Amino acid sequence: MNGLLFGTFLAAMSTGIPIALAMCLASLAYILVSGTIPPFALVHRMVGGIDSFPLLAVPFFILAGNLMNSAGITNRIYNFALALVGWLKGGLGHVNVVGSVVFSGMSGTAVADAGGLGTIEIKAMRDHGYPVDFAVGVTAASSTLGPIIPPSLPLVIYGVQANASIGKLFAGGFIPGALMALLMMAMVSFYAHRRNYGRDVAFHWGRMGRAFIELFAVAVVAVVLFRLWQDESMSGMMKFGYPLAVVLIADRLFRFEAFMALLTPVILIGGMASGLFTPTEAAVAAVAWALFLGIIWYRTLNWRMLIKVSMETIETTATVLFIVASASIFAWVLTTTQVTEAIGVWVLSISSNPLVFLLLANGFLLFVGMFMETIAAITILVPVFMPIIAKLGIDPVHFGLVMVLNLMIGLITPPVGMVLYILAKVSRISFEETVRAVAPWWIPLLATLALITYVPDLVMWLPRVLYP
User: Fold this and answer.
1) Average pLDDT of each block of 10 consecutive residues along the chain (468 residues)?
2) Are the beta carbons of 273 and 240 closer than 8 angstroms?
């Protein structure tokens, strides 16, 4: 019967139908042939798979990212990054990475980063004479920052499936994300010196100083907000009204470029860490902030754009939740047939050493990421891995970041890597050329993966500080 389940699944996938339908067909075939489960259970379990309050964060985070993209925030982020690091050798390569770090605090997905900010970055790098392979490679690598630095759509899905704290998962992504960015910038510097790339803007103390003033202002606001939100004696007006007024005055007074956009992750993480709102409510706060910026502050959104953004959000949300629903029935069948338990026993028979297991898990997840969509992989595999990591004493927050980074590398790995197809279309080069351009950039990502796998404190330090 297990052979029927997996055989039907693989056969359906080989025909080219979407993976969500393949999982449904395999599960239905098993139910019909086994005769022990009513066919109606298929629909019941699919509905149950998405009947979860934390999953409400999915459409809101998608909507927030789409609003930020449509409101022209990407151009402001690009200009801010240009002022901050554009004067370095290989300047636009560094700008690409820094821009993705900022944008990841709004989008939560690698695809949104590659399709939104990546379009601007590749065009700018081409216009400045950079080879297309360098532009595509650094854009693909930097897009993987989106689901690591919070907010993150894959981490929300993982948290729901693993019953792990989404707030801790978000906090755990900051240091790995910063490490990824630093290693990518080191790679850019290597290429810049090897190929003798120049500086794209002249070094100017005033321009760079303004960028650092923005960063300093964001840090100050972060500290003030966190303390205000932890003070239970203060009213809601004081917690929200006064800081907002100061922020708005500062933005108008200093004419900051991306100050308001940089506050997005501050608001989300600060609110969750201080207990002001849950991760699900944080998604709503992100949408409210994006609407405020687009409609009132920058006045770059109109009703026609809002309708377009809403329809795109509905389409993306429907796709994501259908994958979650399909994967939930597939995972349920795996659990009821005790396949997950058998896999756990088999893995532990190889070695009960957590370090060996993490090495095996990384290899397996990298392989799965090459062929399976991220959300489907998380939903199917989390029930398989959870019993094993519980027995080995591995923290689910730590394993969640390891799992998501593995699957993000899969997004830039053939044959199914979605980011590769997007960048091939954006840069107007073949898929094969895109793969060759991206291949060297696996090095900083794999290095980060090794570090966060075997140095758990890189992931766990900040969650322990924010959630004592």
Assistant:
1) 73 76 82 74 76 78 79 78 85 87 69 66 82 90 86 86 88 92 94 86 80 84 76 66 78 80 79 75 84 87 88 83 79 71 74 89 87 79 88 94 92 79 80 89 95 95 86
2) no
Structure tokens at 50: 């998405």
| Residue of 45, 14, 382 lying closest to 6 (CA atoms) | 14
Residue with tokens 């359906």: 12
What is the pLDDT at residue 458?
Answer: 95
Query: How far apart, in whole angstroms, are the C-alpha atoms of residue 294 and residue 297?
Result: 6
Residue 290: closest CA among 310, 276, 275, 304: 310
For 445, the token pair is 């990502």
Burial of residue 97 (number of CB atoms within 10 Å: 0-12, 13-18, 19+): buried
Say if CB 152 and CB 113 are below 8 A apart: no
- Report the C-alpha dihedral over residues 222, 224, 229, 232, rounded to 10 degrees: 160
Among 259, 59, 65, CA closest to 147: 65
Residue type, 96: N
CB 278 within 8 A of CB 173: no
Question: What are the distances in angstroms from CA 233 to CA 202, 239, 278, 296, 385?
Answer: 50, 10, 20, 31, 43
The C-alpha atoms of residue 283 and residue 130 are separated, in whole angstroms, by 37
**How crowded is residue 285: how many other Cβ atoms within 10 Å of its Cβ?**
18
What pLDDT shows up at residue 358? Answer: 93
pTM score:
0.81
DSSP 389: H
Task: Provide the β-strand partners of residue 89.
Answer: 199
User: C-alpha angle 181/184/187, rounded to 5°?
Assistant: 155
pLDDT of residue 459: 95
List residues bridging with 199 in a β-sheet.
89
Angle at 452 between CA 368 and CA 193, to 5 degrees: 95
**Both structure tokens of 295:** 């409609």
Q: Work out the number of other CB atoms within 10 angstroms of the CB of residue 398.
A: 23
The H-or-E segment that residue 390 falls in is helix 374-392
- Please give the DSSP secondary-structure letter assigned to residue 199: B
Q: For residues 430 and 437, what is the distance between their CA atoms, to the nearest angstrom? A: 11
